[in-house]
Amino acid sequence: MSVALSDAALASYLAEIAGRLLLDVRASGLFSPKALGKAGDQTANQFLCHALREQRPDDGLLSEEEKDNDDRLAKSRVWIVDPVDGTREYGEERADWAVHVGLAIDGQPVIGAVALPGLDPEGRGRGMVLRSDEPLPLPPAPEKLRMVVSRTRPAAEAVAVAAALDAELVPMGSAGAKAMAIILGQADIYLHSGGQFEWDSMAPVAVALAHGLHCSRIDGSPLVYNQQDVYLPDLLICRTEHAEAVLGHVARLKQDAIDA
C-alpha cells in the first residue's frame, strides 16, 4: 500500500482481506467439501505470509499453515496467524469461523485482529473484524451465565465448571469465534483445556485483553507466545468478574483428581 499502516491497522486489514478471499474461494463452487478447507487454508495463508513479509520484513512469522522456522525465536516482534480458524465450520458455511492476525512483542499478545467473515451485521459483504486498537463497549452481563464450548468435544473441565456455576453451555466452532462471542455479548466464559497452539489464541487474546477481559492459562498463569514449543494446552477468557470463581473451580477439580 502507498500509505504506511500501523501494526494494528495492518493486522485488521490483512484479516479482513483474507476473510474475503476465503469467502470467494468457497463461493467459486470449484471444490468438493473435502477439498475446500485445504484450498481455503492455503489461499489465505499465502496471502497473509507474503503480505507480512512485504510489509514487515524484519519481523518474525509463525503460521499454522507454514513450516516453522526457529529464526523467529531471536525476534522481539513476531506475527502469529491462523489463516482459517475453524476449517470445518468454514466448509459447512457456518458463521463461527475466523481469521487470526496478531503481533506478539517479547512474548506478549500486544496487537490482534480477528475477522469473522460469516458475520455481516452491516450487510456490506465484508464480515466483521474485531481489533485490539478499537475496543467495543461490552454488553451488559445477563442474569444467567453462558459458557462457550466445542461443538463436537466439550472439555470435561469446562462442563464441570459450567455445572458448578449453573452456566448454560453454548456450543460453538472456532477458538476465535468463541473468544469474540464474549465481546459480542453472546457468552461470558470461554474455558478450554483440550489442547491448542499459539495461533489458535494469540490474536483473540490480544483483542480480548484490549476489551478488558481476563485472559490466562487455566491455572491463572499468564499466556506467553513465540515459544519454541508452540503447543498451548489450555486457556481461559472471561469477563473479569467471573475469573476468580472459574479459576477456583478448576483448581478444586485438579485437587480432587489428585486426591482420587
Automatic annotation (TrEMBL):
Q: Which domain of life is it from?
A: Bacteria
Pfam families xrefs: Inositol_P
Q: Which PANTHER family match?
A: 3'(2'),5'-BISPHOSPHATE NUCLEOTIDASE 1
**Name of the protein this chain belongs to:** 3'(2'),5'-bisphosphate nucleotidase CysQ
List the source organism. Sphingomonas bisphenolicum
